[in-house]
């Protein structure tokens, strides 16, 4: 190859990575007929099956197109993949505030509050009956025993109620998470994104009350710097028909 041709080719290598390797109507293969006299296209290199880049002291690097991705080998991990980020805390909070999930929590809380009110009413009644009685009298001893038994039953119920509320919260969080994942799949497919990571923006306040919480907030911020255009949180919110702040 002549020196001038070498210079031209190397000048185009930087743009090759941004162009499709199978671009139609290349400059070097214009069809015959009237189109052959059309205005020339912008300079392009290709189409080509592969591009070999030499590196002094190392093996040449061969670039190819594999499944519409730039590849430098045959293995799946030897390809370039597009990435994006979603602030899942923001999305999950909005999903948990949905009317359906809130109504489910309200119904459970109403049921638990009614049961607790019943226990408290019974305990207050026993306390009222004890007033004015001799603590050593048989009636007072009987009330003490009834009150102690009822209080133990109330304490056991409180633990069960806490577990019941925790189970509902866990179930709803998983429901919200599944909805989030479905929306991420739709948005990622639409925007040709391969991998989506969860993250917390570095600008988000810690809201920590002690060093342990502050350290946890730091650990959860996996991305220390990122192009803001890679944040697709708002697109996911829109897919879920949720308000975008």
Overview of this protein structure:
The protein has 245 residues and is mainly alpha-helical. The protein folds into 2 domains: 3-81, no CATH class; 86-239, no CATH class. It contains 6 helices and 5 strands. It has helices at residues 3-16, 88-96, 99-130, 138-190, 211-220, 233-239; strands at 51-53, 61-66, 69-71, 83-86, 195-198. The strands form 2 sheets. The chain has a 3-stranded antiparallel beta sheet with strand order 1-2-3, with no helix packed on it. Strands 4-5 form a two-stranded parallel sheet. β1 (51-53) and β2 form a beta hairpin. α3 (99-130) packs antiparallel against α4 and α4 packs across α6. The radius of gyration is 34 Å and the shape is elongated. The protein starts with a helix and ends in a 6-residue tail after the last helix. Residues 1-37 have low confidence and may be disordered.
SSE layout and pairings?
Elements: H1 3-16, E1 51-53, E2 61-66, E3 69-71, E4 83-86, H2 88-96, H3 99-130, H4 138-190, E5 195-198, H5 211-220, H6 233-239
Parallel strand pairs: 4-5
Antiparallel strand pairs: 1-2, 2-3
Helix pairs in contact: 2-4, 3-4, 4-6
Describe the structure in brief.
It contains six helices and five strands, in the order αββββαααβαα. It has helices at 3-16, 88-96, 99-130, 138-190, 211-220, 233-239; strands spanning 51-53, 61-66, 69-71, 83-86, 195-198.
Number of helices: 6
User: Averaged pLDDT, please?
Assistant: 85
> Helix coverage percent of residues?
40-55%
Report the radius of gyration as a whole number of Å.
34 Å
